[in-house]
């Protein structure tokens, strides 16, 4: 037997000079607290996670080797309810990234008025290099290590990059075994046959498309025949591309981590889905030509949907972005520096905490259904999702217009104010 470390492990923070999403998240918070007139005490409380844990996850590989993986769970804030946030499996996971993602979850839940605080989890692992049985062992051990922190009333994980409904089924089962009875409400994004909600798997993308259409209409763009580029063809990007296609939008370029494809007259998205199902990537799709990932971001389109990872639109490339509207399917794709450039160029950026909130809305519906053991019809889920997304869009757009702020600043101010108000009403203990 050999003992190895499967991925670069400690230190769990970014290298100096690297893009750090926590810096971005804190800079957005600083701007909001300044506009709201809050003092440094409030800023410091909101800039710092309430609770965080780092765990070592020993994994027995299929060949008998032992590997040590590192995982994190961060609860940023619980003033408005139990912590809520995804679980990410990626070789790029760092503690600062998880902290940033947890903070954005707090703002997202407050903005959409779902009764949660914010959390996030991550394991530093490249899931493509591990078998299903190995990923199950990682998930069960990680769950076991963080189980004192999670639960339907404490912290409710969900899928994110590199995890899916199977991961949530293992997580729910491991937690339930420890409790001695089935606890469906400990996670969301479960398989529908195991207490998941109808509509959850596509909810983030549905929400992205609801606000994308509203944002394009606000800029007098005719939807039918308009053009879009989508970065990332995973759980969020693939369904977003499909729903845009169904609305008559020409999806002229899509990408994944392996490459990008384009077709100026519009990609045949259903055929592309079949290609990805068969090959695992958009690369090689016969109905398009190969382009670079940079070309995709810089496409001359009405709508750009970054739906992959954070920090892809930066000070270095923001001036090359030609999309009229950018709708953030991913969390944190645009840095604060890039926001300034895009704003000056008249681009409309619909921020992540609004644009991709459809996932947490239907996660909330799933949790309500699981806790009540009473299941909703698909049309009930879809109509309630649409209503919440469009109400939030109207609210943020009106607030931005009233205060003459970019949408992100307006959305962050609304969310931070709600969280600060809840904290103030509850008071400090002791
Ligand atoms: P996923 O793992 O299902 O898919 C990620 C996709 O991005 C894959 O197609 C991958 O190949 C691609 N990708 C990775 N790096 C890339 C790069 N540099 N360029 C182009 N493509 C790249 O993950 P997901 O669940 O779709 O999440 C995507 C983003 O959406 C993340 O930022 C996540 O936090 C956010 N998000 C997800 C949900 C959800 O419900 N899944 C909800 C809200 C926000």
UniProtKB/TrEMBL annotation:
Site (described: Important for catalysis): 160
Pfam families: ELFV_dehydrog (PF00208), ELFV_dehydrog_N (PF02812)
Chain residue ranges for the region called Disordered: 1-21
InterPro entries for this protein: Aminoacid_DH-like_N_sf, Glu/Leu/Phe/Val/Trp_DH, Glu/Leu/Phe/Val/Trp_DH_C, Glu/Leu/Phe/Val/Trp_DH_dimer, Glu/Leu/Phe/Val_DH_AS, Glu_DH, NAD(P)-bd_dom_sf, NAD_bind_Glu_DH
Domain of life: Bacteria
One GO BP annotation of this record: L-glutamate catabolic process
Family: Belongs to the Glu/Leu/Phe/Val dehydrogenases family.
Official protein name in the record: Glutamate dehydrogenase
Organism phylogeny: Bacteria, Bacillati, Actinomycetota, Actinomycetes, Mycobacteriales
